[in-house]
Amino acid sequence: MSLEKKLRNIGISAHIDSGKTTLSERILLYSNKIHAIHEVRGKDGVGATMDSMELEKERGITIASAATNVQWKGTPINLIDTPGHVDFTVEVERALRVLDGAVLVLCSVGGVQSQSITVDRQLKRYNVPRLAFINKCDRTGANPYKVKEQLVDKLGLNAVLAQIPIGLEDKHLGVVDLVKMRAVYFEGDDGLIVEERDIPAELKTEAQAKREELLDALSMISDELAELFLAEKEIPEKLINAALRKGVIAREIVPVFMGSAYKNKGVQTLLDAVVNYLPAPEDVENFVLDLDDNEKEIPLKSDPAAPPVLLAFKLEDGQYGQLTYIRIYQGSIKKGDELYNTRTRKKFKVGRLIRMHSNNMEDISDADCGDIVALFGIDCVSGDTFTRPGLNYSLTSMYVPEPVISLSIEAVDKKSSDNMSKALNRFSREDPTFRSYVDDESNQTIIQGMGELHLDVYVERMKREYKAIVKTGMPQVAYREAISKKADFDYTHKKQSGGSGQYGKIVGYIEPLSAEGLYEFVNEIKGGKIPTEYIPACDKGFKTAVKKGTLLGFPIVGVKVTITDGQSHSVDSSDMAFQLAAIGAFRQAYAKAGPEILEPVMKVTVEGPSEFQGNVFGSLNQRRGVIVSSVEDGNNSQVEAEVPLSEMFGYSTALRSLTQGKAEFTMEFLKYGRVPKSIAEELIRNYQEKK
Amino acid sequence: MVKSELIQRSPLRILEKSINGGLGKGNIAFVASKKGVGKTACLVHIATDKLIRERNVIHVSFAKRTDHIIRWYEDIFNEIAKKRNLENPLAIHDEIIRNRVIMNFNQRNIDISQILKSLDAMIVGGNFKADAVIIDGFEIEQMSLEGLKKIKEFAQKLNLEVWVSASLKKNDLTFDENGLPYELADLLDAIDVLITLKYDEQNIRMDIAKDRDDGAFHDRHLFLDPKTLLIIDSEF
Lengths: 691, 236
Description:
The complex is a heterodimer.
Chain A: H1 3-6, E1 8-14, H2 20-30, H3 54-59, E2 67-72, E3 75-81, H4 89-97, E4 101-107, H5 114-125, E5 130-135, H6 144-153, E6 159-161, E7 163-166, E8 174-177, E9 182-187, E10 193-197, H7 204-218, H8 223-230, H9 237-249, E11 254-258, H10 267-277, E12 287-290, E13 296-299, E14 309-318, E15 321-330, E16 332-334, E17 338-341, E18 346-349, E19 353-357, E20 360-364, E21 366-368, E22 372-376, E23 385-387, E24 393-395, E25 405-411, H11 414-430, E26 435-438, E27 445-449, H12 452-466, E28 470-472, E29 476-477, E30 480-483, E31 487-495, E32 502-512, E33 519-523, H13 535-546, E34 559-567, H14 575-592, E35 595-609, H15 613-622, E36 626-633, E37 636-644, H16 651-658, E38 664-674, H17 677-690
Parallel strand pairs in A: 1-3, 1-4, 4-5, 5-11, 6-11, 33-34
Antiparallel strand pairs in A: 2-3, 7-8, 8-9, 9-10, 12-13, 12-24, 14-15, 14-23, 15-22, 16-21, 17-18, 17-23, 19-20, 19-22, 25-27, 25-28, 25-29, 26-27, 30-35, 31-32, 32-34, 35-37, 35-38, 36-37
Chain B: H1 3-9, H2 11-18, E1 28-34, H3 39-52, E2 57-61, H4 67-83, H5 89-98, E3 100-105, H6 112-125, E4 132-136, H7 145-157, E5 161-168, E6 193-200, E7 203-211, E8 217-224, E9 231-233
Parallel strand pairs in B: 1-5, 1-6, 2-3, 2-4, 4-5
Antiparallel strand pairs in B: 6-7, 7-8, 8-9
């Protein structure tokens, strides 16, 4: 077995508060990299190692994904810590891109919650094989069996128990391994001593029954195993492990492990499972796009001798400069190698090569394909592809949603202002969903992102990491404008004020695009009424016009422009004249085309005890929400609704007070929807007044 | 076809006529058949017809997930829109979603009072003025006359109509000589309108087995199209 066959790149994906950071911390401990355990919200103020940013420590959540290298029984594992909150999904998705496998962590009490569903959907999108780990089996109300059922029912996964618990709640002592049919206990300080014993008598029947279920599921994957199972013969452990590995990599089965990271139970057995069942880099097929060959997909080879193909997936501003995390998809790199950034078309030399352990780093001289390492001082943005000079490859662009919310910010003094620019520059390189620009009209700096919390975190980071104190304005929703019907235009642009004049006449119509398109331009002019050389100028003029609608000044989407006729002048017509004619023509037709305002509508999921249902329904209804469904499961209920983003400001506070803090919600962008007439009128009035 | 015409020409107008102008607020209707004949499709069509007429509907289900119920609505709506060549289907579709709420109950052996409590939370607490409640998939063994009376009381208090599906389990002797299912005998008193679905050669026949105080009333004008499971009148 070669070295890279042994490597694992894994992520830990989870609902917030399901104990993901604690689990990461324990993994680091057991792999002998750190020697003390600090609780996430510990009193000693040291905080968990994976949460490298101060802010995360304070909030008890993990914001940025740091890649950490650990060793488990001789297998190197790159652990990518993914943030759990939906507002940071791009960070999650970027981390997922470079993973070969994931551990889906669930709370044994809370089970599959709305965020687990989001996280699982992301894992599905990137075809990431996964194991499930049911954490917090020591908590009151722990029921891993129920959570396993939820994995099947709610996530549609073929989940099977690979372990059963030995005791639950305060009697949780360890697990029964259903493959080996042994009881596993975790003893000594920090549970460092793993002991295998016979299965306790009272659990024997249960263990046998669950093992049958496991084997039954595996017999669908391995014919060899199926034969032995049907013949009721002894099935060797090796064969079970091979079938599990095959099923996990093919994403046909999700084995379920359990324990309590906090109480040091089940973490080592989970690590064994990671090594045994999750794929090595070469078990996963990856593709690159050849930019010289019409973006043709080329499979990548897990061969250290092949030309290098690397993805920069994460940038971090450390004490010593910019750190770029890369995943090597093909080939290998060493210090002093020359690489080529296919986006900027610039060559650069590999300087320091680093392997990261959360905040400590280790200098290395080379790295092979499959590995995740970091480079120092490279000028790039996240998502860039690096190759050998001469190759023009790009790894598929990562899905980046458009920002839905914006906020004006203003530095309080000169020093803050300088620091603010530095910070903004950094953040927009790190996070493709975070953008900033200076508004031409108001001269204000505007930041854009995926949600209130997303922007809040960056404002906080500016303060903490960059000492930039900023005042923020009211969050502003990113509206769009659209037309609702077809309208004609017949417009002549004419100017004669001495010297050469300007002349251009355009006739045609605009109509709504049926699909989700943004803009389309069709030229139906016959007989050269507008000479071919001016057609691109018309297109350009229309493109300029749709950038800013007249209702609210937001971009116009979903317009198809068709030009059918026109006129030119042999002397006075020019590119400029036709551009201006197109802008005029568009404005003329736009007013007649039933212009409307569209607003971002979010998919909101609220979860909480059923007793507060009425309040939750009421709060969503009040916010112009459409309740799509409500699901009751015992005392817990989950409400799914579509609510305009503009109505969601301050919802977390409102929800907390309506439900005594017992309900929580998540939201993500769903679609753009029409703004009701009365509200649209008010928005337009406000906009006109401001102008 | 524009919306108003679609509403007028809906086969459900014939159903309404057959049951003397419709079910009416405060009343309970049952749609009963064996498993897999088309109860859900039939109820979803009835609900969709109300939604198109801008009434608010709550659909109560007992499935594991809600997405396949939503898919039922999508399918039935698409079939109607296609068959009648409906104008501006997207806008009408948006409106329908706004007027519909799906409430799903996952727990086993749920009690009628719990369902009514949640409905009350939606209608009163959530300010969702429902005109009709569809209850699909409730086990009839667990339905008692007393429970049904509670539903009726609730329907009267909140001024809405209730449509319930009943899955008939017994294989032989499902219906008595009046076309009434044996399994519902104990509940008949509280059922205002009872519609049964049966296979009839090529089609699925809808019979009105009970209409308030009138007994059997076999006005056979309605069928379910076995392909689309839409309600159709016999002339088709």
